[in-house]
Structures are given as structure tokens and as C-alpha cells.
């Protein structure tokens, strides 16, 4: 336990890296998911087919394999591009490789989450809003998006919980996140069990905080719609 206390400052830095990795990955995954859902529900066969191929392939590839492909393949691609442009060697950091890989993976899951939420919205409400003169951005802002958020929140929360746990995989490419630091500290102190138990407690705490926040958001978006009835 004394060794664990001694490494607390380093572990806290690892927690910050893990949380930053998760939040930035979620941001880009949300963007990928929104674009993917727009492509899936569009009437353009090419766009819909391309997104379907993306979601099918990504959901069938293990996270670790895709992470390694992005890190080592991306490193080579960047250096080939830099060489072509007459620039020096370029280094892809483990952090941003992790962001790209995780965002790309969970963007596929969020694509289906957003698509399912959109299809849950009663079409009659959209037609009623159009009959009242709402079009374009006003229609989406006042009718579509509030209901989309409501229907998507449970699935979005589940994707976030899994995404947070997936950040642990990035330690294999040298990222000094919570898992990476705990692994090295456990080896140095020869007390890996204590350090991994600390990691477990931190992830459980993040999960608890996340669940509490998402439940509050679900209540927030459910109340106005319930009153509207």
C-alpha cells in the first residue's frame, strides 16, 4: 500500500490521460456516427452502401488489431507522405493513434445508434411540423433533434461505457495512461495486484459517474416530451 501511495501523482496523471483520450475519442466517434447515420438513411445507394460496409467491417475487427494497424500503418503512411513532400520523418503519437482507432471503431456503433433513434421518431410529427411551416434547420432543431437525443441516449450511454474500457488497450503501444503507468509501477514495486485493483476502482468510479450523468440527461429529455402529451 505504501508503494501505491508513492505512485499516486503518476497514477493521477494517467487518469487524466485516460479521461482525455476517452472524451476526445467520443467527440470524433459522435461525428463519425452522425455522418454515418446520415449516409445510412439517405436515399443515395452509394452513400448508404459505403456506410454499411464501414459498420460491418469495423464491428467485425478486434479493437487491438485495428489499433495496431492505425499506429504502425499510420506511422508508415505519414512518413511516406512526408517523404513525397520532401519533409523529414513524422511521428504518430500513441495518444492520437488511440483517438483515431477508438473513434473509428465506436463511430460505427454510434452510426447504428443514431440511425435507430431517427427511425423511432414518428413520421407523423415531422409531417405535422412541416404543415405548420417548419423547414430545414428549424424543423430539425425544434422537432427532430430533441427526440433523436431522447431515443439515442440509452444506446449512446452504453457505447460510452464500452469506449472508456477500450482506452486500456492503447497502453500496448506505449501510451502512459492509467493502465500503462499502473503496469510499469506494479512491475517496479513487485505488487501488480494492488496497482491493478487501483485501476479497477478508478474505472468503476468513472462508470458510476457516467451512469449518474446519463440517467440525469435521460430524465431531462424525458420530462418535456411527457408534458407535451
Can you tell me the CATH superfamily? MetI-like
Q: What is Rg?
A: 21 Å
Terminal Cα separation, in Å? 56 Å
Main beta-sheet annotation: none
Please tell me the total number of domains.
Answer: 1
Q: Output the helix-strand order.
A: HHHHHHHHH
CATH class: Mainly Alpha
Shape: flat
Proportion in β-strands: under 5%
Task: Label the structural class.
Answer: mainly alpha
Approximate helicity band: over 70%
Helix count equals 9
Annotation, overall tally of beta strands: 0
The CATH topology, please? MetI-like fold
Segments where pLDDT lies below 50 for 5+ residues? 225-229
Q: Tell me what the CATH architecture is.
A: Orthogonal Bundle
- The chain-level mean pLDDT equals 87
Question: How would you portray this structure in words?
Answer:
With 229 residues, this protein is mainly alpha-helical. It has a single domain, classed as MetI-like (MetI-like fold, Orthogonal Bundle), CATH 1.10.3720.10. The protein contains 9 helices and no strands. It has helices at residues 2-6, 8-41, 45-59, 63-84, 94-120, 123-131, 136-166, 178-189, 192-228. The longest helix is centred in the C-terminal third of the chain and has 37 residues, at 192-228. It is flat and about 70 Å long. The N and C termini lie far apart (56 Å).
Amino acid at each position: 500500500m505504501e508503494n501505491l501511495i508513492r505512485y499516486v501523482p503518476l497514477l493521477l496523471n494517467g487518469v487524466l490521460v485516460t479521461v482525455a483520450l476517452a472524451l476526445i475519442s467520443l467527440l470524433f466517434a459522435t461525428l463519425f456516427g452522425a455522418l454515418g447515420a446520415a449516409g445510412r438513411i439517405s436515399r443515395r445507394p452509394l452513400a448508404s452502401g459505403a456506410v454499411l460496409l464501414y459498420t460491418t467491417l469495423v464491428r467485425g475487427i478486434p479493437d487491438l488489431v485495428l489499433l495496431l494497424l492505425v499506429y504502425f500503418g499510420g506511422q508508415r503512411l505519414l512518413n511516406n507522405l512526408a517523404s513525397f513532400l520532401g519533409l523529414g520523418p513524422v511521428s504518430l503519437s500513441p495518444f492520437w493513434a488511440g483517438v483515431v482507432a477508438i473513434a473509428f471503431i465506436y463511430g460505427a456503433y454510434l452510426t447504428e445508434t443514431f440511425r435507430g433513434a431517427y427511425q423511432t421518431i414518428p413520421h407523423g410529427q415531422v409531417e405535422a411540423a412541416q404543415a405548420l411551416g417548419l423547414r430545414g434547420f428549424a424543423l430539425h432543431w425544434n422537432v427532430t433533434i430533441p427526440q433523436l437525443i431522447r431515443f439515442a441516449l440509452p444506446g449512446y450511454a452504453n457505447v460510452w461505457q464500452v469506449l472508456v474500457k477500450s482506452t486500456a488497450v492503447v497502453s500496448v503501444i506505449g501510451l502512459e495512461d492509467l493502465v500503462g503507468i499502473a503496469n510499469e509501477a506494479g512491475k517496479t514495486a513487485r505488487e501488480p495486484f494492488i496497482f491493478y485493483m487501483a485501476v479497477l476502482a478508478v474505472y468503476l468510479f468513472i462508470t458510476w459517474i457516467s451512469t449518474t450523468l446519463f440517467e440525469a440527461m435521460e430524465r431531462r429529455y424525458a420530462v418535456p416530451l411527457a408534458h407535451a402529451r
